[in-house]
Amino acid sequence: MKQVLTFIFCTLSITMRAQADMTYSHTDYSITYPSGWTLDTSGQIAAATFLYSPLENAKDEFSENINILTQNLAGRHIDLAAYKTITEQQISKMAANGKLLSSRIEKKADGDRYFVEYTMTMNGNELHIKSLCYIKRETAYLVTFTSKLDTFNKYNQTGSAILESFKVR
Question: Which domains does the chain have, with CATH numbers?
Fold first, then answer.
């Protein structure tokens, strides 16, 4: 009986989670995110698309977020290996208190991608950042999850799931 109840609970949890997800489809990509997060495609900030987590309480001043940037690489002859090198240099030279945690090119069924994870300080916030970069049709598609260092463990599973849901068409 206990196993049946566990199975039913897990099935209901998965079903409820699937129903709670939203998908944003752009001409070039799509991404799936929890319905409680806010989608911003206004373009008022440099990123083409932003997703913001809900604030935890009245004192919370930072929304964990996902942003999607596209960069035209036409004529620059930049592949994932070059993008990896450039990113590593930028983190070490330009990010305040930048610490590279992981940097690698990954082979996936739908194509290669570059993964980078690092910490840095920005505007007094200690941040933990994970990014995926895809290069297709001479365009870099960069999707990034940003969390405060002290809340990273709380948001990592959700942020990582959103990153993994990103698909370039």
Answer: 21-168 (3.40.1000.10)
